[in-house]
Amino acid sequence: MFRFANPQYFYMLIIVFAVWAIFIYGEYKRKRNLAKFGISSVIEPLMPEVSKYRPRFKFFLQQLVLIILIFVLARPQMGAKVETVKSEGVELEIVLDVSNSMNAKDVSPTRLDNAKMILSKLVDELDNDKIGLIVFAGDAYTQIPITSDFISTKMVLSTINTGIVPSQGTSIGRAIDMASNSFTPDAATEKAIILITDAENHEDDAVSSAKAIAEQNIKVHVIGVGSTNGAPIPIGNSKNNFIKDKEGNVVTTRLNEELGKEIAKAGNGIYVTANNSNNAFKTIVSEIRKMKGSDVETKIYSEYDEQYGILAILAFIIMLLESFILTGKSKFTKRINFFTD
After folding, report:
1. Residue 202 gets which letter from DSSP?
2. In this structure, which of 188, 201, 270, 336 has its CB flanked by the most CB atoms within 10 Å?
C-alpha cells in the first residue's frame, strides 16, 4: 500500500509553475533586448565566454531539485506490515420521544435538549459499536439506520426537534417494535434499545412490546426525562404561552416514572431518571460496557516504510552537480566541456 503522509505539500508545485513562467518571460525579454544590438549570429562571437545553454541547464537542475524536495516533504510511504485486529462491538437502537411534552422545561434547558446532550455524550463513548436512531410521537420514524458513522449520527441528532413528527401523541410500543426490526441479523452481537421518554404513553401497550423484545435477548433500557412535579408545555419558543386544554386550563406534563420502570423491567433492562447531572449517562454507559460484542476482524496497515530518503539523496546529487556547472565559459573548464557552445 503506497501513500503520501503529507499530500498537502503538493500545493507547493504551484510555485514551480510560477517560477517557470517567470523564467520563460525573462528569456523572452533577454532575446528582445539582445536583438536591439544587432543580429545574434554577429554578436555571439564577440562574447566567447557567454554560454547559451549552461544557465538554462542550471535552471532546469534547480527546478528538478525543488520538485524532488516537495515530494520529500509529502513523505512517500509504503505499507510494510499488515495486522489483523479483532474488535468487539454491540448494536444500540436509540428510541427518542419527540412529542410536544418534551419541550417542557422542568429539566434544563428542555427535556428534549437534555436528552440530546445525553445521547451526544453517549455517541462519544462508542468505539467499534453500531447505533441507530428512531424518533416517535404519534408515530415512529427511522432517522438513522443502524450504522457506525458516529459523525453523521451526531449531525442528525443536533437537528432533532418536536416538529419532526407530524402526528402528536406518544406511541412508545410502536417505536419499540420498529427498533427491534432495525437491528442486523448478526446473532452473535448483543443488542439493546435505549428508550428516552417522559413516558406519558397514550397510544399502545409499551410494556407488552418490551416484554416481547426481551424474549429475543434484546434489552430495553429506559431513561426517564422530566420531573414528577410536572411543568407546562410551551407553544413554540414562547416563554409565557402554554398549551391549554378544552376548558382553557394550562396543561401540565409529568414524568411517568411508574410506566418507565415497568417498561424497563419487562425489557430486562434498567430505568434511570435524567436530570442536570451525569448520573443517567454514566449508568447507561456502564450497562453498555457490560454487553458482549461480536468479534470483528479488520486488516490494517500498522506500519509504513518512509521512502523519501532515496529522493533526498537524489536531490543532493543533483545539487552537487549543479554547483559544478558555471553559467559561463572559463579557461579552466574549456578542456572539459559537456556543451557544444
Report:
1. -
2. 201
The string of DSSP codes covering 256-318 is -HHHHHHHHHHTT--EEEE-SSSHHHHHHHHHHHHSPPEEEEEEEEEEEEE-HHHHHHHHHHH
Please report, rounded to a whole number, the percentage of residues in the chain having pLDDT higher than 70.
81
- Check residue 107 and give its pLDDT: 87
pLDDT of residue 220 exceeding 90, the answer is yes
Quick: pLDDT tens for 12-43.
999 999 999 998 988 888 777 767 665 656 55
Judging by DSSP bridges, how do beta strands 130-136 and 91-97 pair with one another? parallel
Among 143, 130, 215, which Cα is nearest to 180's? 215
C-beta of residue 216 within 8 angstroms of C-beta of residue 257: no
In angstroms, rounded to a whole number, what is the distance separating the alpha carbons of residues 102 and 200? Answer: 10
Rounded to whole angstroms, how far apart are CA atoms 295 and 94? 22
C-alpha cell at 79: 505499507
* Among 36-50, 250-264, 297-311, the least confident range: 36-50
